[in-house]
Give the backbone structure.
Amino acid sequence: MKKLVVTGGAGFIGSEVCRQVIAQTGWSLVNLDKLTYAGNLQSLATIESDPRYEFVHGDICDRPLVDAMLARIQPDAVMHLAAESHVDRSITGSASFIQTNIVGTHALLESTLGYWKTLSTDKKDQFRFLAVSTDEVYGSLGPTGYFSETTAFDPRSPYSASKAASDHLVSAWGHTYGLPVVISNCSNNYGPYHFPEKLIPLMIINAMNDKPLPVYGDGSNIRDWLFVQDHARALRLLVEHGRPGETYCIGGRAERTNIDVVTALCGLFDPIRSRPAGETAKRLITFVQDRPGHDKRYAIDSTKIETELGWKPSVSFEHGLRCTVDWYLANRTWWEPIINGVYAGTRLGLPVA
Ligand code: NAD
Ligand code: TDX
């Protein structure tokens, strides 16, 4: 049985990893999370009393706390997801992004290295530090081509720059100290438990409340969408079978313009609201001022993880979108406290004059 430490397990992707690990493996799991505005223990309600699950409330920057936790748990792997994750928030306030995504990753690497050095040779070889990162480190694509593991970094937003710095640190700790690190760079995720500052959950909740759906610019920016359960499955494979020192790109092979995504969502709401086809889109879609530095297109070539590990997306975008809408319709008790509390859905990311 593996012992895993997950950082950021109260977030969107981390909580999916935690739920899958408990439901689908025999591994035990410790979730280290600071519970920022984006962390939510309600996302872990189904596993919180499982004897293989433990929650530790703490900051990855807190060396004494993390050192003591690793010495006590003796994990076989660390899966690092803790981060500030929202591009718009990074535009208006980058300090927490630098602190968690760069200083925090550095602190976690140092703690992990200290712990790893205490292991036997066998355990050292088997150990993995998996850093979960984003395709945004590669910058922005024109109308053709794909990001892959060999694409040069070219981050454009404070968020992506901080993630690129984090990836460089992880890679350096592998090269310099021999820590068995693996990095994954994934495209846009969507699905249940997604914090409603992000495009898809924000549009779903606004559509449910008959509020305007703010599309940045002309809606022609393209993202490559991956259902979160498929991403978590890839991460479980990588933490077990990823080769040390390697990077793996993960994508959904599901490129869509933002306007197509929002129009598709509106189409799902027409029958729910007993409206003729196209009516929800006509009433609610509103074009608003663009995001500063808005990356035009992301698209991932995930051939490496597909051929090496046999992973591929299992959920089509259309099916995943429908499941996601159904989940938000059925789980008001998860998102209403957020909308009535830490985030009411107001526009983020416009620089203050
Ligand atoms: P999220 O914002 O939903 O969750 C982040 C979690 O990290 C929260 O639970 C938060 O409390 C925790 N956290 C933040 N700062 C912390 C700190 N200093 N110490 C401990 N915990 C802290 O993020 P997400 O969307 O689940 O993303 C998870 C990871 O995956 C991030 O590293 C992100 O960059 C990466 N990623 C996300 C996407 C996506 O589409 N969401 C795509 C590719 C990669
Ligand atoms: O209200 C909106 N209107 C809109 O048009 C919002 C919130 C977004 N958008 C656009 C901007 C993007 O082109 O939709 C697209 C998706 O936006 P976000 O949901 O903010 O995601 P993105 O900026 O693409 O980044 C996401 O994917 C990569 C995650 O937030 C990152 O953590 C991940 O690394």
User: Anything to note?
Assistant: The first strand starts at residue 3 and ends at 7. The chain has 13 helices and 13 strands. Residues 85-88, 134, 136, 188, 198-199, 202, 214-216, 221, 223, 258, 291 surround thymidine-5'-diphospho-beta-D-xylose (ligand 2) (CB under 6 Å). The CA atoms of residues 10 and 40 lie 5 Å apart.
